Amino acid sequence: MQRRKFIAAAAALPFTAVAATANNPLAEGDRQLIELRTYEIKFGGSGKGRLLDYLLEVLAPTLRSMGCPWVKVLKERGDADPAKIWCMIAYPDATTYVKAQDLSGNVDFRTASADYDALGPEKPIFNRYTSSLLLAFTGMPQVTDSREAALYELRTYEGYSEDATRRKIAMFNDEEIPLFHRTGLHPVFFGDMIAGPYRPSLVYMLHFKDMEERNANWKTFVDSPEWKEMAAKPKYANSVSNIRKVFLEPIG
Question: Cys-Cys crosslink for 89: which of 35, 66, 193, 194, Cβ 3.0 to 4.6 Å?
Answer without folding.
Answer: 35
